[in-house]
Amino acid sequence: MLTEPDLDLIAALQIAPRASVATLAEALDVSASTVGRRLVRLEEQRILRVIGQVEWTARARGNPRHVWVTTEPGASGSAAKALARFPEVQLAAETAGRSDVYLAVHVPDRAEARELLAERIPGVPGVAGTHSELVLRALTRADSWRLHRLSEDQQKILSREQVVPDGFDADDVGPDERRLIGLLAGNGRITAAEAGRSLGLSQSTAYRLIQSTLRRGIVRPRVEVEPAQLGYELEAVIALTITPGAIQAVAGELARHPSARYVSIVAGTASVIHQGVFRNEDEMADFLTRDLAPLPGITALQVSVVLRMLRRYWLYREDGRFAPDRT
Questions:
Q1: Cα-atom radius of gyration of the chain, to the nearest Å?
Q2: Contact 9, 47 (CB under 8 A)
Q3: Does the chain have fewer CB atoms within 10 Å around its N or its C terminus?
Q4: What does DSSP assign to residue 122?
Q5: Cα 149 from Cα 230, distance rounded (Å)
Q6: CA 14/CA 144 separation, integer angstroms
Q7: How far is residue 144's CA from residue 241's CA, in Å, rounded to a whole number?
Q8: Pairing status of strand 234-242 against strand 127-140
Q9: Which of 62, 54, 66 is nearest to 93 (CA)?
Q10: Is residue 9 within 8 Å of residue 35, measured between CB atoms?
């Protein structure tokens, strides 16, 4: 179980993932050595990692897709494991409800989408059927989800090391930046000295590249911890069908809901996908019966409850922790 100080540190990293140990210590009113030890322990226990969330257009041409997979009886576990190994699969989970397996996939090129969706995924042993939705627009992503534990004063201290992105042109990313993106994706707290050594650049050049990459929003550092470790025992992917005139308004309200880790407007049989986390069944029931009730235009919803998370943001998971590195 994570301690209260562990949760405070995670909350601080959610606000400022690249904050120095000194700044984290100041915000949490503990010593820098205590913060350093706690951070190392959480990483060694495979509970916490700070990664880099790469902007879609810098990673591939075309937006991600949600994919729901039905399987033959008894085949959901083996099919989910096989599907999780696909390099295009960002997220893979065994689910109950709308489907047996839920995937979030991001294909490098639009031309490859047909092969993946129509041939490779259906060709996995045990897969009986698939359904996909194209993401048109994301209103919130996992880097925006927060544990609301810190005071305004603590948040002000951490905000000194926040980088507010100002947008970028995907066609204006140089070769050194592309190599740096790969480093930041795996380690969102990488230092200029570490990046410089890996890229064969001076520390000052690496620092300028890091700052430019973050400021332009090409990579957004985020802390990764499985929600169950934070007390959110229930995770669900909810597909909502909404009348056209209400789609934007409903999606905006859902993006502001405290459960929202990922909310997107999609093209398919659904209109909006809400990927949310809840502390228990009662909290999820309140969301479905109370929080959704006043929103206009919702005509139907389908729920897939996550039973087991196998892969999230291309990182394998085991029992609520990061799996050991796989080759």
A1: 20
A2: no
A3: C
A4: T
A5: 12
A6: 8
A7: 24
A8: unpaired
A9: 66
A10: yes
Q: Where are the beta strands (DSSP E) in the chain?
A: 49-54, 65-71, 89-97, 101-105, 127-140, 219-224, 234-242, 260-267, 272-278, 298-312, 315-318, 321-322
Q: Give yes or no for a contact between 7 and 149, defined as CB atoms under 8 angstroms apart.
A: yes
Q: How many of the other CB atoms lie within 10 Å of CB of 300?
A: 11
What is the rounded distance in angstroms from the CA atom of residue 263 to the CA atom of residue 265?
7
Q: What backbone phi and psi angles, to 5 degrees, belong to 241?
A: -100, 125
Please name every residue paired with 197 in a beta bridge, in sequence order, or none if there are none: none
**What is the largest distance, in Å, between two alpha-carbon atoms of the chain?**
57
Selection from 301, 268, 296 nearest residue 284 by Cα: 301
User: pLDDT 10s digit of each residue in the chain, 327 long?
Assistant: 799 999 999 999 999 999 999 999 999 999 999 999 999 999 999 999 999 999 888 877 789 999 999 999 999 999 999 999 999 999 999 999 999 999 999 998 888 899 999 999 999 999 999 999 999 999 999 889 999 999 999 999 999 988 878 776 666 788 888 899 999 999 999 999 999 999 999 999 999 999 999 998 899 999 999 999 999 999 999 999 999 999 999 999 999 999 999 999 999 999 999 999 999 999 999 999 999 999 999 999 999 999 999 999 999 999 999 998 754
Evaluate whether 230 touches 287 at the Cβ level (below 8 Å): no
* CB-neighbour burial class of residue 109 (10 A; exposed 0-12, middle 13-18, buried 19+): exposed
In angstroms, the CA 202 to CA 214 distance is: 18
SS3 string, 34-99, reads HHHHHHHHHHHCCCCEEEEEECHHHHCCCCCEEEEEEECCCCHHHHHHHHHCCCCEEEEEEEEECC
Query: Residue 110 gets which letter from DSSP?
Result: H
Q: What is the DSSP string of 163-182?
A: -------TT---HHHHHHHH
